[in-house]
């Protein structure tokens, strides 16, 4: 039953392009009697088979979902049930052969993406892809509106969790592998779950208390909440997005976090006009390929296509052409993505500066998963 459920989730992800996290949420809601171990088994099978799809197909000599699952279970030392459709043999011997396969098979990425990534990043691509296949730890951002980092560290230690600070990211803590965040802390808005790489973006805006800030692609508000904390509860943040559902989640999180300076606006035809020249700072946290977050969303790599990527880049370019109009004269904006591809990152920024000589790059930041062990990000501040 559990094995079949995991295979069912994978079928939705591989055959119908569905989002892995959402499929897991749905199946957990439909099976409220499953205990923690049951849920872990289903989630782990679905995640690891998605992450290692091509490597497992090589080991099993078959790319059907039952064969991929059986190879995954064998690989981690679990028994494959007698009645299961596929029982791969000689996996240990094939592991040795796998090591000699090309990167796209060994590290399980689509061929077209491998060609593109190597073309853009050269040899660094191999290191980044390998880093993106490691499991990601849980990072927290201490909400400095509600607590201090030291206090949270002590609270966690008193609950048996030895969290650690993250060098270079002042409000970040990392939990030991396999540890989850105790519920009360999350529920009270004392901490937010936010990757250390993502925590590098808001400080780049160089905000001050009292400023007017627009987060033009705010989503559910990871970075908007961070900006509110950096502004120490003074000023105004307008969180915009095309998704009303995400903005309502943002409002829920903002009230939990104890910030009152964020208001939300769903993008409409006249939004740009109404807010033109209003902001001291604008954050354009643009939709992107998401390649920097593959550790947490390995299904992305199977959904992404060359044409969807081109479409996303055209959207990024349009945003760069128009969203800076939200700034008052002398204001600054930050363009950010969670991609590793220069064509979505520095390439977009340099093209903008070429076509609009009023813009100049002040600071640029690239977060490499291979170098940091964090998700991958890019950000640039322009005046
Ligand atoms: C990278 S995500 C934002 C993540 C968010 N800033 C955070 O820190 O949690 C990009 C967001 O852009 C939104 N989006 C897509 N098209 C947009 C558009 N034309 N204008 C503004 N936002 C858009 C998406 O709904 C999505 O929430």
UniProtKB/TrEMBL annotation:
It comes from the Bacteria. The keyword Transferase applies. PANTHER family: NOP2 YEAST -RELATED NOL1/NOP2/FMU SUN DOMAIN-CONTAINING, RIBOSOMAL RNA SMALL SUBUNIT METHYLTRANSFERASE B-RELATED. Signal peptide: none annotated. Residues 128-383 form the SAM-dependent MTase RsmB/NOP-type domain. CDD domains: AdoMet_MTases. The active site is at 338 (nucleophile). It comes from Luteolibacter flavescens. GO terms for molecular function: methyltransferase activity. This is RsmB/NOP family class I SAM-dependent RNA methyltransferase. S-adenosyl-L-methionine binds at residues 241, 285. Pfam families: Methyltr_RsmB-F (PF01189), RsmF-B_ferredox (PF22458). One of its GO terms (biological process) is methylation. InterPro entries: MeTrfase_RsmB-F_NOP2_cat, MeTrfase_RsmB-F_NOP2_dom, RCMT, RsmB-like_ferredoxin, SAM-dependent_MTases_sf. Keywords: Methyltransferase, RNA-binding, S-adenosyl-L-methionine, Transferase. Belongs to the class I-like SAM-binding methyltransferase superfamily. RsmB/NOP family.
